[in-house]
């Protein structure tokens, strides 16, 4: 979710409710000790107790391949009292993989062990260290070895995106491939991938044997998906957000985000509208109205005009 789930997005989504935890975009760790300001840039929540305004805990996510340097940066981050440190071994980006990061490490499970162990040993035991992986790089053959490397390193939790790196985000997700792992895991295992609605959540949990789920892109297609899933699990009703409510939320987010680079509002508005089309057909109409606009003022004016014409 690099470039998508920034702290403003985490703020608006957790205000809707249903989320027990968030993870930041990954902080790329190469060969240097990063200054604390880098961590607070990715996770401004560190300056307010490591939680969003709604009180949802936020874990700081690190991505790198050198155990010693990863441990050094985890210790540096520890000075800011993060509520948890998450290690990314799942990113399928070609750029990241060419730089020996993310899912490239799935081809070398022993290196995953050394990275997780180094970070776990370096930070205070009170700070959870979690890891996210995929089923493998090109197939599932090494899944047992990969997961065992995380377990041996004493991670506190493992999240599995139920696709390989080569699958990227192409459906389906192979939730059932995780069941043998969750059945013998000494730590909680979280299922992730292709969970778009309540029915998907139930099936992912059943097929994988996992109690907990992680949501990614689906949070942008249905901002209240976590609240719906949680309410359903408790036998409660949740009134799905209307298009008017969703658009108002997006508009508020864009206004809070307009101090980023000059075309941030334009790019993020179009990106989010594409996601929203999965559940809100009205989003397609608005997307075509803004798709050629560049400035934030033009975007805001067009959304207001749309709201005056359509929303009630």
Provide a short characterization of the protein structure:
The protein is an alpha/beta fold and 312 residues long.
Description:
The chain has 312 residues and is an alpha/beta fold. It has two domains: 7-233, Aldolase class I (TIM Barrel, Alpha-Beta Barrel), CATH 3.20.20; 243-310, Up-down Bundle (Bacteriocin As-48, Chain A), CATH 1.20.225. 45% of the residues lie in helices and 11% in strands. It contains 14 helices and seven strands. It has helices spanning 7-16, 36-42, 67-78, 94-98, 109-122, 143-152, 179-184, 198-208, 218-221, 225-233, 243-256, 264-276, 282-290, 296-310, and strands spanning 22-28, 58-63, 85-88, 129-134, 157-161, 189-192, 212-214. It has a seven-stranded parallel sheet. β4 (129-134), α6 (143-152) and β5 (157-161) form a beta-alpha-beta unit. α3 (67-78) packs parallel to α5 (109-122) and α5 runs parallel beside α6. The longest helix has 15 residues, at 296-310. The mean pLDDT is 95.
Counting DSSP E segments of at least 2 residues, the number of strands comes to 7
Largest sheet: 7 strands, parallel
Identify the strand order in the major beta sheet.
1-2-3-4-5-6-7
Q: Which runs of at least 5 residues are low in confidence (pLDDT < 50)?
A: none
Tell me the overall shape: globular
Please, what is the average pLDDT?
Answer: 95
CATH topology of the largest domain: TIM Barrel
State the CATH architecture of the largest domain: Alpha-Beta Barrel
Kindly, what is the distance between the CA atoms of the first and last residues, rounded to a whole number of angstroms? Answer: 33 Å
Number of helices: 14
What's the CATH class label of the largest domain? Alpha Beta
Into which percent range does the helicity of residues fall?
A: 40-55%
Total domain count? 2
Percent of residues in beta strands? 5-15%
How would you classify the helix and strand content by structural class?
alpha/beta
CATH superfamily of the largest domain: Aldolase class I
> What letter string, H or E per element, gives the SSE order?
HEHEHEHHEHEHEHEHHHHHH
Radius of gyration: 20 Å
């Amino acid at each position: 979710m690099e470039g998508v789930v920034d702290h403003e997005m985490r703020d608006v989504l957790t205000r809707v409710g249903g989320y027990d935890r968030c993870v930041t975009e990954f902080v790329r760790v190469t060969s240097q000790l990063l200054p604390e300001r880098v961590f607070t840039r990715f996770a401004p929540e560190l300056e307010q107790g490591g939680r969003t305004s709604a009180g949802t805990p936020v874990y700081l996510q690190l991505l790198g391949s050198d155990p010693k340097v990863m441990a050094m940066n985890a210790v540096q981050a520890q000075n800011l009292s993060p509520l948890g440190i998450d290690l990314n071994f799942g990113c399928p980006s070609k750029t990241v993989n060419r730089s020996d990061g993310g899912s490239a490490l799935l081809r070398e499970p022993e290196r995953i062990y050394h990275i997780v162990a180094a970070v776990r040993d370096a930070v205070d035991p009170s700070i959870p260290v979690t890891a996210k992986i995929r089923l493998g790089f090109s197939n599932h053959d090494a899944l047992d070895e990969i997961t065992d490397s995380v377990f041996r390193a004493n991670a506190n939790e493992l999240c599995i995106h139920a696709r390989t790196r080569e699958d990227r985000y192409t459906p389906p997700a192979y939730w059932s491939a995780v069941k043998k792992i969750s059945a013998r895991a000494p730590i909680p295992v979280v299922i992730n991938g292709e969970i778009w609605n309540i029915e998907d959540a139930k099936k992912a949990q059943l097929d994988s044997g996992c109690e907990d789920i992680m949501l990614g892109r689906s949070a942008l297609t249905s901002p209240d998906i976590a609240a719906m899933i949680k309410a359903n699990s408790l036998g409660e009703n949740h009134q799905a957000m209307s298009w008017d409510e969703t658009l108002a939320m997006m508009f508020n987010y864009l206004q809070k985000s307009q101090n980023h680079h000059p075309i941030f509002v334009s790019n993020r508005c179009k990106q989010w509208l594409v996601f929203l089309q999965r559940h809100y057909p009205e989003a397609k109409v608005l997307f075509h109205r803004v798709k050629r606009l560049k400035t934030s003022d033009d975007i805001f004016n067009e959304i207001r005009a749309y709201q005056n014409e359509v929303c009630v």
